[in-house]
Amino acid sequence: MKNSLRITAFFFLLIMFTACSNSSEKSAEDHAGLMRNEIHSVEVDEDRAEIAQTEESKEATDVPMKGKRKIIYTAHMDIVVPDYNESEKKISEIVEKEKGYIVNSHVNQGEHNEKSGSITVRIPQGSFQSFLDSVEKISTEVTDQSVDGEDVTEEYVDLEARLKAKMSVKKRLETFMEQAETTKDLLAVSEQMGKVQEEIEQIEGRLNYLKNQSDYSTVTVSITEKSIKVGELGSKDLNTWTRSKQLFVTTIHFIFTGVSGAVVFLLGLSPILVPIAIIVVGLYLYIRRKKRNEKASRD
């Protein structure tokens, strides 16, 4: 009798343990399924949030944003200066005054010791036009100047909206990570978290780039040195002796050209001129002799 009771109790406990185990497994599976559904819902909500934020950003950029627009300005100037080193120094001083910075510069020296080169600088957008005016003042001539502007306001606002949506998703995933009960759930949430974090870093990088490019304008100044030297003026404009020699040579050349043309003219018409000359000379001699004979007969 006692053995029968023991056996019955053993089977009862075994049945209860099996039921609890199945219930626990089912509960774990249900929780895992719920977690997967939550992660999926986060992805869906993320897509919807991005679409909504994009629509809002488009509406925002349709409204005038005076003083808030993100515009990337770039400019290029070609200037002529009397002294390269002095002009480069003045440009550096202007950059420092406007709280900008020099990106790069290079210089070349030509055959006549005249220098040329370029300087690329970044200037705060508020000082962009005043910098161009200051550079123009230190030059003797501005041979070329161009200014380009790219409005990136819409892209900037869109990126801000996307970043906001991604940060919201990241916060929800952090909550799920705290609630994860199994390794499988933890891995699933961690994988999704990694993707979202990577997208956030990409968006933040692009935002920082656009902000920097719009806050600071890029200006490239090409400089050509063209100094006025006394020796060059004397050789070109004030050297009387050289100008006299040139005039003398020109005059001799003109005389020889005239004589050569006359000779060619006479030789070319000699078949006509020679008989005419003979006739004219013959008539002259005949008339002269006749006058002598008449004078002699009267005497």
From TrEMBL:
Query: What is the name of the protein in this document?
Result: DUF4349 domain-containing protein
- Protein's UniProt keywords contain Cell inner membrane: no
Heme as a keyword?
A: no
Give start-end ranges for the coiled-coil region(s): 186-213
Q: Where does the record locate the signal sequence feature?
A: 1-21
Note one Pfam family from the annotation: DUF4349
Q: Which UniProt keywords apply?
A: Coiled coil, Membrane, Signal, Transmembrane, Transmembrane helix
Residue intervals passing through the bilayer: 254-287
Kindly give the InterPro entries that the UniProt entry links to this protein.
DUF4349
Looking up PROSITE patterns in the UniProt record yields: PROKAR_LIPOPROTEIN (PS51257)
- Lineage, opening ranks: Bacteria, Bacillati, Bacillota, Bacilli, Bacillales
Q: What sequence ranges are listed for the domain DUF4349?
A: 69-284
